[in-house]
Amino acid sequence: MMDFAIFWDWLSFAVRWLHVVTGIAWIGSSFYFVALDLGLRQRPGMPAGAFGEEWQVHGGGFYHIQKYLVAPAEMPEHLTWFKWESYATWLSGFAMLCVVYYAGADLFLIDPNVLAMSVPVGILLSLATIGVGWVVYDLLCRSPLGKSDTGLMLVLYAVLVFIAWGLTHLFTGRAAFLHLGAITATIMSANVFMVIIPNQKIVVADLIAGRKPDPKYGKIAKQRSLHNNYLTLPVLFLMLSNHYPLAFGTEFNWVIASLVFIIGVLIRHYFNTMHARKGNPTWTWLAAAVLFVVIMWLSTVPKVLTGEAKASSAAQIYVASAHFPAVRDTVLGRCSMCHAQEPSYEGIYHAPKGVMLDTDADIAEQAREIYLQAGRSHAMPPANVTQITDKERALLVAWFEEAEK
Q1: Contact 212, 17 (CB under 8 A)
Q2: Which residue among 160, 184, 209, 234 has its CA within the 20 to 30 Å range from the CA of 23?
Q3: 306 band by pLDDT with thresholds 50, 70 and 90
Q4: In terms of DSSP H, where are the helices of 77-145?
Q5: Please, are residues 165 and 254 in contact by the beta-carbon 8 Å criterion?
């Protein structure tokens, strides 16, 4: 079991790394093509069917790029489709969801103080929220409301705020933020897989068959691409938020998540306007900064304490161990000066990553991480500032491994 825990931790790291690599590829190509599309210019004498062109310089060479709204008169011999970046990002993200949140549901997904449920129910509820999020979004886009970009965006934002609130009443704060990001990322990837690419394939098939393509397919794909453009930055924040408990672990976390979407829209509006050469709306940065200050303030609003929580049934085995009294003394003496409701270590004002280790229940719930971070490895305490001994580390290892037998 102890070898499996180490393997699983490395697997988590590998999947996360893959997700980052594929995400960079997808977001990078998305940002590039949005900037390219907004920077296109028309000139006399352009080829028939060409909408605009742009000259760019990079890597010691010049690029001359032309865009066709539908397609050129003849299909080119080589045509590159930008879709695998999106699919790989979603698949690797879902794999990470399984490895971290489903396999560790008792720790990362389910909080009995929020909503008591079994692990299978929690996983099914997680899958349902992701699937329903896409269905609701797609139905709204296909409804008469979809004819108004502004009206649709406002309604979609209201739906996202409701989802953010709802998720914080289902899962842990960390999982709620992650799921809001997963729902948004699913919308973005499904836009590519189920709308943008199929519509482009219809247009290509019509051209090959000598038929005139219906312009509605391009219009629909353009709208979905616009949504993806404005959703990218909020998704990045939500995916990184699990490292910052002041974002997900506070009373008004759903409000913080909602404001992040507005900040993302403001920043994208700035770059979109600049790339389109329509001005320099620096006010967007000021507005984003003000909203970020509001977020900081919301994170400091004290949460009403409801008393000391009891360890979950899965964590009881660690409390019952004969080693636990010595382990508790070690953790309280070497770790809880930082990992506590009110840290006493100088310069630490909030427990790092929201991990509390000042009660029996807290220590038991974090048994696996204590084992990996301070037992099997020397990651904690940082630089061994509390001078935990090799004997104490061996005690942590023996405690966890014995309980897992």
Answers
A1: no
A2: 160
A3: very low
A4: 84-96, 119-142
A5: yes
307, pLDDT greater than 90:
no
60: left (phi over 0), alpha (psi -120 to 50) or beta: left
**In 3D, which of 117, 90, 95 has the Cα closest to residue 12?**
95
Half-sphere exposure of 328 (CA within 13 A, CB side): 15
360 contacts 319 by C-beta, under 8 angstroms: yes
Q: Give dist(CA 223, CA 196) in Å, integer.
A: 9
- Helices 2-39 and 84-96 cross at an angle (nearest 10°) of 150
How many whole angstroms separate alpha carbon 318 and alpha carbon 313? Answer: 10
Grade residue 99 by pLDDT with cuts at 50, 70 and 90.
very high
- Residues 6 or more apart whose CB falls under 8 angstroms from that of 41 comprise 52, 53, 54
Question: Between 390-404 and 2-39, two packed helices, what is the crossing angle to 10 degrees?
Answer: 100
Lowest mean pLDDT among 186-190, 192-196, 284-288, 298-302: 298-302
Contacts of 393 by beta carbon, 8 Å cutoff, 6+ apart: 374, 375, 378
Q: What are the structure tokens assigned to 1, written together?
A: 């079991």
And the tokens for 288? 């984003």
Q: What angle do CA 399, 316, 310 make, to 5 degrees?
A: 125
Q: Beta strands of 59-204 (E only): which ranges?
A: 61-68
Asked if residue 47 has a cis previous peptide bond (ω within 30° of 0), the answer is no
Task: Please provide the size of the chain in residues.
Answer: 405
Amino acid at 103: A
54 touches 40 (CB < 8 A): yes
DSSP label of 65:
E
Q: For 373, list phi and psi in degrees, rounded to 5.
A: -80, -35
What tokens were used for 191? 């836009």
The closest of 352, 353, 173 to 253, measured between CA atoms, is 173
Largest separation between any pair of C-alpha atoms in the chain: 85
Residue 72 confidence class, pLDDT cut points 50, 70, 90:
low
State the amino acid at position 265 in one-letter form: V
Contact assessment for residue 97 and residue 177, using Cβ atoms and an 8 Å cutoff: no
3-state secondary structure (DSSP) of residue 55: strand
Arithmetic mean of pLDDT, 354-380: 88
Residue found by looking up tokens 């489709």 in the block = 81
First to last CA, the chain: 7
